[in-house]
Design goal:
Helices cover about 55% and strands about 0% of the residues. By secondary structure, it is mainly α. The protein has a domain at about 15-50. α1 (about 15-20) runs antiparallel to α2 (about 25-40) and α2 runs antiparallel to α3. The radius of gyration is 11 Å and the shape is globular. The two termini are about 15 Å apart.
C-alpha cells in the first residue's frame, strides 16, 4: 500500500474548523472537518468517514 499523502501545514486543526464553520458549502465544511480530525491524530479512515468520504 502506498504511503498516505502528507497533509499541508498552512492551517492548524483549529483554523480548519474555523473555515468549516464559515463555509456556506456543506460538502466543503465536511471535508475541512475531516482534515482537522486527521491533523488531531484521528485515523485517516475514520476521519474520512465523518466527512462522508469513502476513500
Amino acid at each position: 500500500m502506498p504511503a498516505p499523502l502528507k497533509i499541508r501545514d498552512e492551517y492548524s486543526a483549529a483554523g480548519l474548523r474555523k473555515l468549516a464553520k464559515g463555509s456556506r458549502d456543506n460538502n466543503q465544511a465536511r471535508r475541512l472537518l475531516s482534515l482537522a480530525a486527521a491533523i488531531d491524530g484521528m485515523d485517516r479512515t475514520d476521519a474520512a468517514r465523518i466527512g462522508g468520504m469513502d476513500r
